[in-house]
Amino acid sequence: MLAFLVKHSLIGMFICALLGFAFPAASNALFPFLPYVLFTLMMLTLVGMPMERLVKRLCQGAIWLYALLHSAFYMLIFTLMGVLIGVSDELLLAILGVGATGSLFATPAIVRALGFDALEAMAMTIATTLLLPIALFIPIHFLPMSQGSLDFVTYGLRLLIFIVGPIFISFSLHRLMPKETLQRALLKISPYTILLVFAFPFGLIGSYRGMFDQSITQALVYLLIAVALVLFFFAGTFFAYRQSGVQEALTAAITSGNRNVLLTYSIAGALLGPAFLPLAGAMQVPTYILPVITRRLARYLNCRPQ
């Protein structure tokens, strides 16, 4: 059964989003536990990566240029578009929160399932996650649309727990445990991490279902915005990296399209406004169908996995 889930993990994540929408009570019941799932997944993903090679990738300037494209560039574009179109303050704050959000820590597994360079995706994911505090600080502290004040103590503690914590634990395990022992443990544990990934689309979409029950029209608008955001991230990044090759462009594009909205909410919480969670829930549908589309796109472009 586990082998079947791993083999069909890409479509399985999308099905979990649909199941969460169909059973909102179960989705909402799982939601409070998602931060613990997130922490565990981030730690296990990092532990499974070759640290020396990963650090070398992180020292490359190209990775940090990608991180700036991932957050700063899109946040600037969304701010200009929001002001010109006249988007409400609550919705614009939510969109900027999504723009600041780093990549999903499940992205390397998704990229590996597509046959591309998972280490590159991991380096991009870490870089965007490390930039998240700065990118997120700007809209929730300086923009007048943000409701409430930023508690720096709470903000700092959440950063330590959800970003520094998994990185510190993974580096410590690589330093303290014999390499062979660590690899044997990872071989036993890693297949089960896919079950953790399934929890995110299922548990996050419940807030969107609540909006759907109150106003179908508003929910459809949010779904269209979510689809547009994911497509904008994917297409914009793909064409920015197209000259580097199809595999590199698709790796960067899917890393940009997959956004760790739960981590952003875990750090900033209600400071992101009431529109963020419904938008984050709506994003589960396009986010988790994106890998399936990417696989078909790779075949269409005659991109042969390494």
Automatic annotation (TrEMBL):
TM segment ranges: 9-27, 33-51, 63-85, 91-111, 123-143, 155-173, 185-208, 220-241, 262-281
Q: Report what the protein is called.
A: Predicted Na+-dependent transporter
Which keywords appear in this protein's UniProt record, sorted alphabetically?
Membrane, Transmembrane, Transmembrane helix
- This protein's record includes keyword Transmembrane: yes
Membrane is among the record's keywords: yes
Supply the source organism for this entry: Marinomonas fungiae
> Which region is the signal sequence?
none
Record-linked InterPro entries: Na+/solute_symporter_sf
